[in-house]
């Protein structure tokens, strides 16, 4: 059942049916309220809908559940960056970067500790690379 719901949420997002995907995440969260990935995924749907405050609330919950997972900090940093809250975005970018550095194996971040997919690892690397650098340049740090 859980596997089906995860695929359903992904499919709804791909189809652009974000509100339905949010509802599906709500159902999954009722079943598994301590699953940080569900909160992160729900936040991602709110991000696409430009409902940024709700996205931040979801990412906050994910961070509370998995405070050492860089994925959640990268996700929240994107929202702060869109809201032009540069200092908060930079703080989250830096936290995610430091978490990745602490958890590298042979110089390569694998994401194994948090069971991250290749897509999620690529997202983290992209956000920490391009978005973080652009923000640093913008803030002239």
UniProtKB/TrEMBL annotation:
Keywords: Repeat, TPR repeat. InterPro entries: TPR-like_helical_dom_sf, TPR_rpt, Ycf3/AcsC/BcsC/TPR_MFPF. Pfam families: TPR_1 (PF00515), TPR_8 (PF13181). TPR repeats lie at residues 36-69. This is Tetratricopeptide repeat protein. It comes from Blepharisma stoltei.
